[in-house]
Design a protein that fits this description.
The complex is a heterodimer of chains A (about 300) and B (about 250). Chain A has 11 helices and 8 strands. With about 300 residues, chain A is an alpha/beta fold. Chain A has a single domain (about 10-240, about 275-305), classed as TIM Barrel. With about 250 residues, chain B is of the alpha/beta class. In chain B, strand 6 and strand 7 (about 135) form a beta hairpin. Chain B has helices at about 10-15, 30-35, 40-50, 70-80, 80-85, 95-110, 155, 185-195, 200, 225-235; strands spanning about 1-5, 20-25, 55-60, 90, 115-120, 120-130, 135. The chains are: A alpha/beta (about 300), B alpha/beta (about 250).
Chain lengths: ~300, ~250
Amino acid sequence: MGDEIYSDLMRELKEGKYVFTGELEPEKAGDVNEPIEMAKELVGMVVACNVTDNPQSFAYVNSMAASYLIQKEAGMECVYQLRCSDRNRMALLSDVLGAGALGLKNILALAGDHVSLGDTPDAKPVFDLDSTTLIQLIRTMVDEGKDLGGKEIHNPPKLHVGGAAAPGAAHLKAEVGKVKRKINAGVEYLQTQVVYYTDVLDKFFDELGKVDVPILVGIFPARTFGQADFFDKYVAGVDVPPDYLEAMRATKAIKDKEKKKEEVDRVNIEFFTGFLEHLKGTPAAGCHMMAVGYPRIIPPLKKLME
Amino acid sequence: MIAQEKKPMEEILGYLEGKQKVVVMGCGGCATFYHTGDTKAVNEMAANLTKEGKDVFKMPLPFSIQACDIEKSGVWLEKNRKELENRDALLVLSCGDGVQVVTEYMDEKMGITKSVIPANDALGLVGGGPKKFKETCQSCGMCELGKTAGICPLTSCGKGLMNGPCGGVRVDNKCEIDEKKDCAWVKIYERMEKLGELDKFISIRSPHEWSKAARPRLFEIEEPVGMDVIGAMKGMLTVKFGPKPKLDE
């Protein structure tokens, strides 16, 4: 692995700072205005923001285009999420070159949800590469300046590649085996799927053992009951605690908008106080706050980590 | 064998619109095993089409005479040349392979160009039985089973990942796409664990070589498929089987 540092995210991780990242979701729209506005609010709160790539296989604005515009317009460093679901190895290679040319500095290599789960279920799923081989491809391109066939890349892209881990996976040993494989492939940082239970996190770190790759633990403070309920019902490997879910459900009845916001914030701060306190004692290198559309919750949560 | 199921009758009638005189051809191979092209299926299809006012000629193929094995099925086509010439369409109760082999033979060897219509949807190479079957091989041309404890992830993993599992495994180790299907990568992990080969699990498998599956694939063997196959089948009749094992339904 090369020792060069290309991004602020990687610089902070290497410096051993406790790192916070956020998440932005481009939509089915002909512009990226909303994520850009959200990103502006997050500047200074997080070092970088992930920009989702067709999350849950719903087809939205291209993540590379969105990442570029967010970096340019909002001045927020982006983690360009790149899924194998929709592109073969040639398109992936081409997109990584494109990302480098546009000045993107971080990629999160993902297999991606199956297309049948989203809004274009009759699409042909690709998965020509998987997350591990995509990580390997990116490392080869960046470090060796070579493509898959060993051909030289003129002025290779300068960026870092991360991967995902799922602490709540049904089969933890198989999941951890896969994470170790990603580490062997040269992944430079890991961001986890959302975790709500501290014991889930502890079991994951125990099973993984000591590794040299920094791990950012994913949390999801929900802005609405619907968001929390969606995670609980539809996102594999994520269990939302019933007490938290009920407290969020209760906020639905509050009619006054401002009071509702205050109560949602209170529920989140109350729940995450214990979780984040626990997180301080784990080997996590930081926290990936997937507070999509909910930037106001990040400062109080960050304060809990001080 | 190639699993298959019958197409909805409405779809078939749509293809046959404006075509009054129809030949219904069966298949003595896989379609006979799956009851989609045996003599009973030919009779049923003929009865249904007659009810719809079609003029039907039946052409079932005997057991072991497969539509796709043109050296043999061609004999039936030649025998019924007049009917084929005088009809508007040929409905073939086989997989897509049978349909196309018959079409090409009629076009190029018999000089008869007719609408040839599929009656079935092929569902892939499957194993198992007697009632439940599972697709485990997609004939990719570059077998990876030696790297994956004898379970093909390209076929059995919903995403076809060479390095799984993905993050979508369900609580009961089922696939994110379909709760009825097992996660192939959990199965691979468990087999490797039993085999004492977990070091293989965390090694990185290279991307699959899809160039080996460049379609359409052409294939040639030195010894032609011929009467020796029939001879082997006769030999089977002399094999004494033990008590029939109890099979899961």
